């Protein structure tokens, strides 16, 4: 059961974190507007689209920087408690430092569950709207950049079929130099080629131009040709080159399914998708680690007062973000383990939290 002190600290924990978000989010919006206002005016973006963009921006921004906001808010109000000798009074009453931490851990649990659910279901939709707006209106390459490398694409679409296209145009939904190979075991059964293939959204079919199908037989092969041929396929041309931020836009269940499908297809971006998946779990866990570090650093009364504690806190917070970004990028661009890369900041700062906590107890 929560005591008066527990309720007091928990209330301050959640209130300060909320105020920190409400203070920094408008600053982030103002900075973003100042950077993008010229392009918005040049492209004559509808006002409603801008409003929706900044709604998505708010969720995306808060989710990305929540560890820093949480860390600084805990340091801020705990330093105030220490400067007012409230921490000394609490500990002098016979309460151990571990017991003093309990309301902080409860607060971290509430924030973690909230961030976890946001990351699973709400942030993906906000990320999709945020990125769609950027690539549609603000980036030089427009929608073509959304699909990253869309040349010389070779994909496995199921256990028996492989697709190759020389290039893919997302705007016209057209792929060039198309090849579809079907295997039975290790033996090639048939091969379809076309100079280009185009998606027809009205009847959900594909039109192939300069079509050739070669079916392999035991004695001779069967060859079928046509200048133009319509067909129905089980794959989607957009699956050949998914948008570069596709993993960020999927809820947790869809993300698992998408990663499994991409593994079967031999996607070269699988590490990018795994980093997004692992971060959905690791980021909420960081709330506990950063809370313990913040309390251990700021619960002692220092000569420099809150300024010293905030300086230490800001340095540690940006060190955490630095490691998170560096190792995340390393996993995405190399063969470095995505699981280790995502969890390394939590492991390193978890060890630091244990060290600082022991020191604070003394």
UniProtKB/TrEMBL annotation:
BP GO annotations: lipopolysaccharide transport
PANTHER family in UniProt: PERMEASE, YJGP_YJGQ FAMILY, SLR0882 PROTEIN-RELATED
UniProt-recorded name of the protein: Membrane protein
Keywords: Cell membrane, Membrane, Transmembrane, Transmembrane helix
Signal peptide stretch: none
Primary localisation category: membrane
Compartments in which it is found: Cell membrane
Membrane-spanning parts: 12-33, 53-79, 100-123, 281-298, 310-330, 336-357
Organism: Flavobacterium hydatis
Membrane topology note: Multi-pass membrane protein
Keyword Transmembrane helix found: yes
Top-rank taxon, per record: Bacteria
Pfam families listed in its UniProt record: LptF_LptG (PF03739)
An annotated GO cellular component: ATP-binding cassette (ABC) transporter complex
